Every structure is written in C-alpha cells, then in structure tokens.
Amino acid sequence: DCFPAVDYFENSGLPFVIALNGFDGHQPYTPDEVREALQIGPDTPIITTDARHRADAKSGLITLVEHALMARLK
After folding, report:
1. What pTM was computed for the model?
2. Rg of the chain's alpha carbons, rounded to an integer?
3. Is the dihedral of CA 65, 42, 37, 72 positive or negative?
4. What does residue 48 show for φ and ψ, rounded to 5 degrees?
5. Fewer CB atoms near the end CB (10 Å): N or C, the chain?
6. What are the residue boundaries of the structural domains of the chain, listed by start?
7. DSSP letter string over 27-56?
8. Which of residues 24 and 15 earns the better pLDDT score?
9. Region 8-34 average pLDDT
10. Is 21 helix (H, G, I), strand (E, B) or coil?
C-alpha cells in the first residue's frame, strides 16, 4: 500500500522518513526488512515509533526535520 507514496517522494526529490508504527513495542518487521522490501537506499531514515505516544511522534518529526536540513546542505 505504501509503494505509491514512496515513489511520489522519491520522484519529487522531497526528503522523507519512513516511520514503522508499532503498538506497545511490537514491530512486525525490522527497519532492515522494510528497507529491503521497499528498496530504499541507506540515506533515508527508517525509524520505529508508536504514534499514539506524543514523545514518539515528536521524535519522528525531529528526525524528519533533521533529515530535510541535512539533505538541503548536500
């Protein structure tokens, strides 16, 4: 289901982060498994999160902004 979204961001040149939303610490897939399945390069951050928790959501947004700033500086 996420392939069109990944394609969109890759084709647009916008930096993006992939967040694996798990519940209560359970992640069905590792970041490496997702990276391989989506054929995402090593420059795109893949983070684990539980979006129900404010601190996790905040951390994800910080990761995205940092990644976007670093991409801009390249």
Report:
1. 0.84
2. 13
3. positive
4. -105, 145
5. N
6. 3-73
7. -SS-HHHHHHHHT--TTS-EEEE-TTSHHH
8. 15
9. 92
10. strand
